[in-house]
Amino acid sequence: MPGSRSRRVAVVVIAVLVAATCVNLGLWQLRRLDERRALNAEILDRGAASPLSIEDVAGEAAAEPYRTATARGRYDVEHEVLVFGRSLDGEAGHHVVTPLLLPGGGAILVVRGWVPFAMQAAPVRAAAPSANEVRVQGFLAPDEGDGTVAPDADGIVRVLDVEGIASSLPYDVFPLPLQLAEQTPPQPGSLPIPVPLPELSEGPHLSYAIQWFSFALVALIGGAILVLRDRRAATGDP
């Protein structure tokens, strides 16, 4: 019957469209997995390289995210900023970023660590660094901004925008921030808490891809079952 045939065609079309959408989403998850694996390999390769001494390099040429690095100097606490809304172990807070004045001139922004959300203005007195010269070891973190995000009146920024932060400073700034892992002499108090490297896991992308491919298979099988049932009903077959 024409009506039954049209219904079966509609079921097939819907099943194919749903399956195609699920397959595309599964392929997208696999692309995300490849990107995550590439980033993990990049972090491991750069982390295995010999540490870069910030005082001995000329800015852009050596500025690679996740490269291990060291810097020596004194903190400029009055120009400290807070990167708003960064969690640590599931607890809300901020990242404390303080310029480190280098002996040869200029500075590098040091992500000294995490403080609780209640601390809403910079400089954070409860997380004040040593006033003496320090040596910082860590890794170069990615620049998150495009030069448009400058600190507000409370020293708050929404992203770690090196150029935007540098626009409020009276000296040149290294093009990537240094995320602190160790410091000599150590931080005098318990805050800020150093921020760990990004987790080198592959994330849930593979399991999500398998789920989407499974949904595609279910859509096709379900559509086939509905078509067969409708066809049997139309012909009177048991």
The total strand number stands at 8
The coarse overall form would be: elongated
Helix amount, in percent?
25-40%
H/E element order = HEEEEEEEHEH
Average of per-residue pLDDT values: 82
- SSE-based structural type: alpha/beta
How can the largest sheet be summarized?
A: 5 strands, mixed, barrel
Distance between the termini: 17 Å
What is the number of helices?
A: 3
Radius of gyration (CA) equals: 27 Å
Strand content: 15-25%
Enumerate the spans where pLDDT stays under 50 for 5 or more consecutive residues: none
Query: Within the largest sheet, what's the order of strands?
Result: 2-4-5-8-6
Question: Please, what is the oligomeric state?
Answer: single chain
Mind explaining what this structure looks like?
This protein is α/β, with parallel strands linked by helices and about 240 residues long. The protein has three helices and eight strands; from the N terminus they run H-E-E-E-E-E-E-E-H-E-H. It has helices at about 1-50, 160-165, 205-235, and strands at about 50-55, 70-75, 80-85, 95-100, 105-115, 135-140, 155, 180-185. The protein has a five-stranded mixed barrel with strand order 2-4-5-8-6. It is elongated, with a radius of gyration of 27 Å.
